[in-house]
Specification:
By secondary structure, the protein is of the alpha/beta class. The protein has helices at about 15-30, 70-80, 95-105, 125-145, 155-165, 195, 220-225, 245-260, 275-280, 300-305, 345-360, 365-380, 385-395; strands at about 5, 35-40, 55-60, 90, 110-115, 150-155, 175, 205-210, 235-240, 265-270, 285-290, 310-315, 330, 400-405, 410.
Length: about 425
Amino acid sequence: MNVVILTREYPPHVYGGAGVHVEYLARELARLTPVEVRRFGPGPDEAGGHESPAVRSFEPWSALADAGALGVMSADLAMAADLHEPSVVHSHTWYANLAGHVAKLRYGVPHVATTHSLEPLRPWKAEQLGAGGYALSSFCERIGLTGADAVIAVSGAMRDDLLRVYPTIDPARVEVIHNGIDPQEFRPADGTDALRREGIDPERPSVVFVGRITRQKGIAHLLRAAEHLRPEAQLVLAAGAADEPEIEGEVAAQVSRLREVRDGVVWIERMLPRPDLIQILSHATAFACPSLYEPLGIVNLEAMACGTAVVATRTGGIPEVVEDGVTGWLVPITPADARGTPSDASAFEAAFTDRLNDLIDHPERAAAFGRAGRERAVEHFAWDRIAARTLEVYRRVTSPGRVTDDGGAVKETSP
């Protein structure tokens, strides 16, 4: 079976959970079957080989290089061209869903799409892409998902959202396969050199946030909650890749105000090398995930695998990863609008502060949560299991009995 994975993000250009997912999934799948990754460039092509994926890079057409979503669509068309006997194409996020759909139509092969989020549930993307760009991103997602032979949802909550937003999708074609973690790479680390380089005191408690600067991650609420953290605690923000300049400016202003009332505020604005991130997570008292929208939250798995307690919003797929009172604390939220804005922001922030302070005050509880989180991550979320389940989806959609109607949609028939 020849698998072609279509993605925007892939090393060395990874900035979010979807990119991490594709990186590890491609690696594990390549141990089971030939895999080619087609990604957005620039970047070096790689020939691949036994147990390693081949990689090809594609850029927007020069005439559309500065045309936002139209440029993305041109890169999709380039990725869908010149495929060599693919058995199945597998797209990730709206950035590549159109490429998967076009490849399906052109080559008559199944298209599998993994949903890491849904555009209609991220209205703040209009700020990043512009109204026209958001309409185009939503179109690419809709045409790709509704025409796919199988859709993989990264959580049960994501599956529910998918079927609600796109009711024409047959539920039988939607499979839940969670994100994963490499427990051999993400594991408790003893070293502290990375902490000291970043100005983090390993002798003080610390609350760590890792994520893009985007409204869905709830970083503004965490910064307000941090005003009331115990004074001995540090707040470490590994936060960059802002969606747009406005929110980056808002976060910078909040960080500046927070530093006026407390010390120990560390803001790391670049992508950290993975060994450094693992050190910082391993020494954290608690990992904070105040997301307003989170289909799963791979960063929670990373923290858990490093033996760190998690305090996270009870939203989306997070409760499928974080066990309340076992591997961390879940903070309830009542959304007031489609953006996930809490109906009572002050109450949400106060509850987040209380749960973080509880772990700062009770380090033995934080340590117990961390041990349980590590055990859960290893037992349920290893990438080899996830790759095997994904391969089962490929085999199902490539099995005999598939016919294509005049519109390019695939129908199942009896063998």
